User: Which sequence fits this backbone?
């Protein structure tokens, strides 16, 4: 029996040969990696250069993917496909033309906001959500045209709903969980997830402890039962995994993720002054070696093998096939 695809649609690890080997040992076929938080266009290009070096040095383990077929080819070659994405629109600066250039360089996902207000939309930590801006509407249309997927993982409610409505193509929430399961500010309301999935958009369920019911103490059973409940509410074919795994990152990286250059004060985001660093992962998911636990946990809920295979990767692969290329008329 052919093993189903295993895709993690969001990681921001401290990349190393160790992690690349763990991806292979864990049977991970593709990973969407963050290459920009607050980087300008030129700083983002330096990250592309860095990844090009990884592809040369560890070419037996990883390769760059721009399409669903690239993921299939990587798997056939025994490699993990790496897909580029941004957690902020900072690489396009205020230049619409950079959208296509970013896509040409390999970017396939871009958040319209991180936690703050951007040129395009409102982040989830702002007091007032003013929705999609004039530039945001233009960028959405251009992202649709070239095949750069809109990601609203860190965006506020109104902005997310307006992005779903404005976009002519399905969007994604690559890493978040339902608010009805855990009331974190970053998690998404039932209204948002319904609108997302009814329009053909995908959600990737997050394993970042601040997004989990019980945080580090969240059980595998609770996480998998949440996914099974989501499948009953929204249908299983638009659900996947977006772990938000930050493996081996030093706590100092959290400061860059949350603060960028916009403040001199510490923005604690989902945490507090007492837990400003990376929280420990649950023991059943500490890295790429542990995807078997999720697969077995989903089966234990009574989900069919076909539905489990969809959540573990087949659904993301189908989404890639439809949304990574130019818009067709």
Assistant:
């Amino acid at each position: 029996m052919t093993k189903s695809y295993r895709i993690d649609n969001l990681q921001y690890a401290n990349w190393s040969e160790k992690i690349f080997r763990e991806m292979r040992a864990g049977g991970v076929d593709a990973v969407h990696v963050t290459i920009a938080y607050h980087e300008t266009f030129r700083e983002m290009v330096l990250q592309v250069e860095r990844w090009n070096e990884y592809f040369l040095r560890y070419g037996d383990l990883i390769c760059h993917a721009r399409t669903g077929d690239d993921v299939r080819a990587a798997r056939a070659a025994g490699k993990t496909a790496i897909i580029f994405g941004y957690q902020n629109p900072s690489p396009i600066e205020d230049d619409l033309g950079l959208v296509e250039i970013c896509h040409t360089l390999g970017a396939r996902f871009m958040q319209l906001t991180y936690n703050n207000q951007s040129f395009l939309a409102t982040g989830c930590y702002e007091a007032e959500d003013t929705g999609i801006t004039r530039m945001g509407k233009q960028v959405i249309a251009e992202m649709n045209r070239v095949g750069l997927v809109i990601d609203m993982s860190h965006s506020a409610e109104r902005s997310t709903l307006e992005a779903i409505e404005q976009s002519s193509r399905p969007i994604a929430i690559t890493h978040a969980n339902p608010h009805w399961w855990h009331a974190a500010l970053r998690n998404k309301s039932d209204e948002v997830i319904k609108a997302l999935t009814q329009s053909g958009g995908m959600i990737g369920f997050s394993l970042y402890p601040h997004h989990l019911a019980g945080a580090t103490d969240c059980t595998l059973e609770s996480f998998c039962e949440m996914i099974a409940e989501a499948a009953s509410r929204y249908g299983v074919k638009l659900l996947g995994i977006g772990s938000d795994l930050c493996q081996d990152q030093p706590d100092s990286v959290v400061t860059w993720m949350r603060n960028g250059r916009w403040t001199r004060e510490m923005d604690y985001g989902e945490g507090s002054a007492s837990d400003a660093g990376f929280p420990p992962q649950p023991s059943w998911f500490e890295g790429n070696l542990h995807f078997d636990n999720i697969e077995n946990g989903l089966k234990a809920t009574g989900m069919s093998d076909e539905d489990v295979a969809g959540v573990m990767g087949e659904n993301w692969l189908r989404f890639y096939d439809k949304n990574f290329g130019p818009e067709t008329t």
Remarks:
- The mean pLDDT is 95.
